[in-house]
Write a structure and sequence with these properties.
300 residues; alpha/beta; Rossmann fold; 2 domains; 8-stranded mixed β-sheet; 14 helices; binds 1,4-dihydronicotinamide adenine dinucleotide
């Protein structure tokens, strides 16, 4: 069966979905970007256009990008070759979405989930066999337009033609370096990355309890963790505190009992407080840097 990709539908236009949509449209492909309501759709469009590298590219993206709500535009999915899910990192939400789109999908289209680490088999379990054959994980990294790495994770039932087609498209058209991973919790990069990020956060928290400010704590931890100067707090602000907490939660749910990594799957209390107040990082206009740095300033 031909699995050629000439158009892309992205569902969820947040940090990652907007990056994937921008990359595909900038490369000259028609993109449909669906969100849950009109306000979220408007913001997703703005976010996608903001990722253009210059005015010409912004015009090109504007021309190729169609946005809409899931309720109003779901049937249009049938016109698209690759359907890429980039909604919240929640197993039930992802499963509900795939059940919903399956009837509208055309034969031969390919599907992917941009999950950070939920096993693919948990997402597809009990859903139509056709979905199991047509789906892989495409785990892009943030920011999508900058980060070259892409993990592609097939499931047990995935048609090899789907893996080949998406690897080709993401490699040749989007310029990614594709690594194929096994369907294990958090795949390769996040299985390692989450531990050092979350354990690093626990260390950073200890520094801050000793009165060390956020920038100094980041400077102390950046080099040993192999991070750029924006550091660990800066990275988590970019990822989103909510996303990081959900990734930790899913990791905890999937690790075997007694695994040493379980201790590092939870946010320390101060971070949990930011989360509870909706201070999620760059996307909400404030996370560690805006909020905690402000608090550092008041102490000194
Ligand atoms: P985000 O919170 O920035 O965006 C999620 C978007 O999906 C929001 O705009 C929201 O309105 C929309 N949405 C949520 N539930 C929906 C539903 N049921 N139907 C339609 N739209 C819905 O999240 P982000 O960071 O873009 O993450 C998306 C996925 O990518 C998650 O699975 C996450 O784990 C994964 N990921 C995130 C990375 C990061 O650094 N933020 C890196 C790699 C993967």
């Amino acid at each position: 069966m031909g699995r050629e990709i000439h158009s892309v539908a992205v569902i969820g236009g947040g940090t990652m979905g907007s990056g994937i949509a921008a990359a595909a449209a900038a490369a000259g492909w028609r993109v449909l970007l669906l969100e849950r309501d009109r306000e979220a759709t408007r913001r997703a469009r703005e976010r996608t256009l903001a990722q253009a590298r210059d005015a010409d590219e912004q015009q090109a993206i504007d021309r190729l990008l169609v946005t809409g709500t899931l309720d109003e535009s779901l049937r249009e999915i049938g016109e698209f070759d690759w359907i890429c899910e980039a909604i919240v990192e929640d197993l039930d939400a992802k499963r509900a979405l795939f059940s919903r789109i399956e009837p509208w999908r055309r034969e031969g289209s390919v599907v992917s989930t941009n999950t950070s680490g939920i096993p693919l088999r948990a997402i597809t379990e009990g859903l139509p066999d056709r979905l199991g054959r047509d789906i892989v994980v495409t785990h892009f990294f943030n920011p999508v337009r900058v980060m070259k790495l892409l993990e592609i994770v097939p499931g047990n039932d995935t048609d090899p033609a789907v893996v080949a087609s998406l690897s080709r498209f993401c490699g040749d058209v989007l310029g990614k370096g594709v690594v194929q991973a096994k369907d294990t919790v958090n795949f390769i990069a996040n299985r390692i990355g989450c531990f050092w990020m979350l354990s690093g956060l626990h260390h950073a928290h200890r520094f801050r309890n000793q009165g060390i400010g956020i920038e100094r704590a980041d400077a102390l931890l950046s080099a040993p963790l192999g991070l750029p100067a924006t550091g660990l707090y800066g990275l988590i602000d970019l990822i989103g505190l909510d996303v990081m907490a959900l990734v930790g939660r899913n990791l905890a749910a999937n690790l075997p009992e007694g695994d040493a990594g379980l201790a590092f799957t939870r946010f320390p209390a101060e971070e949990a407080g930011l989360l509870a107040r909706g201070q999620l990082g760059r996307k909400s206009g404030g996370g560690f840097y805006r909020v905690l740095k402000g608090a550092d300033g008041q102490k000194s």
